[in-house]
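Example (one chain per record):
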Amino acid sequence: MIHPRVLLANEAGAGRGHLLKLAAVARALGPGPEIVAAIADLRHAAALGGVAARVLAAPPLRYTRAAREDPTLEGNATWGDYLAGIGLVRADVVRRGLAWWRKAIVDEDASLLVADYAPLAILAAQGLKADGWRIEIVAVGTGYGTPPATLARFPRLLPDFARSLHSEEAILSVVNRVAGETGLDPLPRLPAIGAADLTLPMTLPFLDPYAGGRAAGELLAPLVDMPGPTLPPAGDELFVYAAAGELKAGGLVDALSALPMRRRGFLPGVSPETAARLVASGMVLEPAPLAAEVIARRTRLWLHAAQHGSLCTAAVWGIPQVAIPQQLEQLCHGRRMEAAGGLHLLPLRESTPEAIRAAVLTAWSDGALARQARDLSRALRAAQPARPMDQLAERLAPVLARIHADPSR
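Predicted structure:
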């Protein structure tokens, strides 16, 4: 049997969740494949430990420094605005990315590309495939991060965010002009940049902003540990998950230092100074991620920035949540989770130390919020597969079968 040579790809997004998802897909492929990862942000490369034989530094797609300092310099209405903001409206960025990924796929002799937040990697693979290169393309991510490639246009995601500085036609013109320099056929519309042989959006159904545009049965369960038939009783701690950048926003560190309850957190990338301050206040900082069951047994309330993994894990384990979203994906997911129940959302602009402390203390003793969380968990456990990794492996099986059956590979 010929084992596939797999290239894991990520170009954008700063969270370790992107790499955890790639690592999970790699594990779901089973033993045998030769795996190399090409990622834009090496800070969380350890998440690929035990999966990738090598990790390459890929060219990043990101907002310019000016746009990070002044968000009004970029659009915020649709996924197209996001693609423009991270560079797809700049010909030099598209040209560099396409050339790099085309070379990486050829140099690594990849027969399978697994891409999360990697539009230029997918586009490069599309072009090579059209030229006769034998490669399967798998797009993975949350529902938010894997819009259907069949959409005519990207829809508006949040009613109160409507700024578009670049039309889809303008973005598509740049992409097609640069892609045409290497002989790629023009894309018919911008969403087609994500076209893959297999798309694996992994999220809870009510969190998917593109639910109406997906093929039946396309959505997969999020890759979180699922509880058994009975939830553990609520614990007596506040659990906090926040990356270094999220700790800097608002008054979170001040609030955490002043809260009276038992506190425990996993804060990847936290500075030594901030860690020392929190520990001095009595907070326990974990050096590595905790298993979901361990969190559930200890935790009465979960505080986070509405990261997708935290939202889904807390929801299926019935843990009430307080979230302070810091970017549009988190806000979109957070609002949808709040509507489903069991979560209180605190806007970033209101996240003073006093407001965070008040929100946590209120949620801590909110019996209705706790009941909503348990009710939601009950519904999710009845509808979601008990072993999401098995579902993922089953969905990947036809891709592997095509690779193994191709005598030219």
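Caption: The chain has two domains: 5-224+386-405, 237-383.
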